[in-house]
Write a structure and sequence with these properties.
This protein is 43% helix and 13% strand. With 387 residues, the protein is α+β, with helices and mostly antiparallel strands. Strand 4 and strand 5 form a beta hairpin. Belongs to the protein kinase superfamily.
Length: 387
């Protein structure tokens, strides 16, 4: 629970809540803790997405994901504790005018492709791949985060609900919205990867659109505008981006095997990529926190219910039950009670210990059985001979 962690500082703000650095008191390990106010989530109808994200993330673990460790709740908030990655997100570095070399972007594509390959085995479409959702670790390797609009698709079925960030959404998503397409699948994430890679190389996206641009206008843009590729980029990189940004889904690179088959990728040692043995060309500054410093000021000064004062606040609230003036009408209270009931409590550390314990017991059982078999084998020939 909340008391098992020491709050160190605020580092970010997402669509569903805020993020701070925490240290687990017993192990001294550092994590990022995302906390989401229950009342705000209920009022904005975001509870379902939060619970879905918890459900998805507890079944995932991969070197290029931001892995989920713990979840818990109190009266006010829902908490998710995940890997701490202090290298900042790629949006932050783009805003800092970082120039990403072609070799660095090629490695990012390789690492993210392995993550997408893994997600496909779990039948998960991320649906929101963009620089904002790609975090760097201290060595410069990428980690995909934010599964709150991800979709799980059953075998041979397509997704039909519309979700994502418009400038990164694939054409078939808009066609599905317009009713001219039967749905979409994993290919939408590969389109988003192509848009992201292009933006990292050029500092701008290949298509100009905003969150307010209507779907029909966006579809016209895809057919009228042909992305330009600077002469300085290698022919191989341009070819790769064209294959990722192919409007025809059937011709687009849409899985890990198709990417690995490209001549441009023939020199990639995929085992080395997975083991993070290939050094990225860009390493974040380790002497500074790679995030906007105003997050800390907001938490300490502007936040009406700052996290570091939570313990005192909850104690006072218990003492003065119901006198805080919050809108606790019957229907709202029922929805808050449902959040309390449906919330998924998770502890990966405990799960890992249980698995280790089971495998240890299994190996002991197998060892004893082997000894027993060995003893039986020693006995049987004697019995056979004496027979």
């Amino acid at each position: 629970n909340f008391d098992h962690f020491q709050i160190l500082r605020a580092i970010g703000k997402g669509s569903f809540g805020k993020v701070c650095i925490v240290q687990k008191k017993d192990t001294k390990k550092m994590y990022a803790m995302k906390y989401m106010n229950k009342l705000k989530c209920v009022e904005r109808n975001e509870v379902r997405n939060v619970l879905k994200e918890l459900q998805i993330m507890q079944n995932l673990e991969h070197p290029f994901l931001v892995n989920f460790w713990y979840s818990f709740q109190d009266e006010e908030d829902m908490f998710m504790v995940v890997d701490l990655l202090l290298g900042g997100d790629l949006r932050y570095h783009l805003q800092q005018n970082v120039h990403f070399s072609e070799s660095t972007v090629k490695l990012y594509i390789s690492e993210l492709a392995l993550a997408l390959g893994y997600l496909r085995t779990k039948r998960i479409i991320h649906r929101d791949i963009k620089p904002d959702n790609i975090l760097l670790d201290e060595h410069g390797h990428v980690h995909l985060t934010d599964f709150n609009i991800a979709a799980i698709v059953k075998e041979d079925l397509k997704a039909t609900s519309i979700a994502g960030t418009k400038p990164y959404m694939a054409p078939e998503l808009f066609q599905t919205f317009e009713g001219s397409h039967p749905g979409y699948s994993f290919s939408v994430d590969w389109w988003s990867l192509g848009i992201t890679a292009y933006e990292l190389l050029r500092g701008q996206r290949p298509y100009v659109m905003r969150s307010s641009t209507p779907a029909n206008e966006i579809l016209q843009t895809f057919h009228k505008v042909h992305p330009s590729y600077p002469a300085a980029w290698s022919l191989e990189m341009k070819s790769l981006l064209r294959k990722l940004l192919c409007i025809d889904v059937q011709k687009r690179i849409s899985c890990l095997a198709e990417l690995q088959d490209l001549d441009y990728m023939s020199d990639v040692n995929w085992d080395a990529v997975l083991s993070k043995l290939l050094p990225p060309g860009f390493i974040p500054n380790r002497r500074r926190l790679n995030c906007d410093p105003t997050f800390e000021l907001e938490e300490m000064i502007l936040e009406s219910k700052p996290l570091h004062k939570k313990k005192k606040r909850l104690a006072r609230k218990t003492k003065d039950q119901g006198s805080d003036g919050s809108p606790q009408n019957g229907q709202l209270q029922q929805r808050l009670d449902n959040v309390q009931r449906d919330f998924i409590v998770f502890n990966r550390e405990k799960s890992k210990k249980a698995v280790d314990s089971d495998s240890s017991e299994l190996s002991t059982t197998e060892k004893n059985k082997a000894i027993e078999d060995g003893q039986n084998n020693n006995v049987e020939p004697v019995a056979f001979l004496s027979g």
